[in-house]
Amino acid sequence: MNFKIRRAAKEDCKDISRMIMDLAIYEKMPDQVKISHEELERDGFCQNPLFECLVAEVPEEHKSNEGNGIGTALLSKVAEIGKKKQCVRLQLSVLNWNTPSRDFYAAKGAQDLTVTEGWHAIRFDGQNLDNLANEAPKD
Amino acid sequence: MQWRRMPAAFKSQRRRRSWKETRLSSSAITTSSPHLRSMDFSIRAANLDDCKDIARMIMELAEYEKVSDHVKVTQKDLEQDGFSKNPFFHGIIAEVPEQHKTKEGHTKIGYALYFYSYSSWSGRAIYMEDLYVMPEFRGTGVGKALINKVAQLALAAGCHQLNFTVLDWNKPSMDFYLSQGCFDITASMGYHCMRCEGEALEHLAQL
User: Fold this and answer.
1) Residues A9, A61: one domain?
2) What is the pLDDT of residues A81-127, one digit of tens each?
3) Is residue B177 among the annotated active site residues?
4) pTM beyond 0.80
5) Best of B195, B203, B206 to disrupt the A interface by mutation (most A CBs within 10 Å)?
6) CATH of domain B4-164
7) pLDDT tens-digit profile of B158-195?
8) Active site residue: A12, A40, A44, A105, which one?
9) Are both A107 and A80 inside the same structural domain?
10) Separate counts of helices (H) and strands (E) for chain A
11) Closest approach of B104 to chain A, Cα-based (Å)
């Protein structure tokens, strides 16, 4: 099946937003999605964008079919872009119960640093982040 | 990719809210050094001249984390990557006055390294790559002041998350972060940190 990988354009944000929600549903956390296509358009397509994005697209006749090799192509393209900018690491996180994805990343040569080295991902958000910021010394 | 550029809007926001050196007095709650019980230190943005001390402290942190052979970044890399037109990271330095310098003569005794990232669920975020305080200055409020400043900068830039990692055996750090109100999303939600590097990354880029 034909597919192509290309840089996202502003017009893609509605579809990216749709797929972000699809991913959040898969990860069993759809209520965690707080941003819409509007934030993506603002933050990804301004003069100094906060993120970059690739999209995978199939021709009209294949719409809504599942693909083979598309995930690999997307991940490889990210790696290629990183290499061109002299990046030495590609990092991501995956949920421990998400076996298909864990297997996919392991097959691509990713190490699970939580298992091998004991790294834990830590986050401050919401009220906790506000509290932490409010304790900063006044300028 | 770990790096993110800050948009121009953020840069002008930061200039308007630029913060000067802040002096703090701190009385230690627990410290093995009595002379540090009442101590001044200041927190300020890192500049190009700090890269030598940042490189030194990066190595000290790596030794603490038992991975000093992993450190490949040099002072020159920090200068190029942190202080160019579109920096890959930002730094904050904790400094003590001359009378409290270490026996080797260092007055720069702690740092935090961070950069802006993005959450597809919450939008703008900050990733704190390093937070470090030299051993003899721990327990005096320096680490707290550094992370408070990162959090303040995060909110000022419109970020909704401050993310970082900590080793599971690093109990003093884990206890400190938990006491400040963070979530361990590996323990509570099952997120694992994954990395591709070296030959695996080369191979992936060629597929």
Assistant:
1) yes
2) 999 999 999 999 999 999 999 999 999 999 999 999 999 999 999 99
3) yes
4) yes
5) B195
6) 3.40.630.30
7) 999 999 999 999 999 999 999 999 999 999 999 999 99
8) A105
9) no
10) 6, 5
11) 28
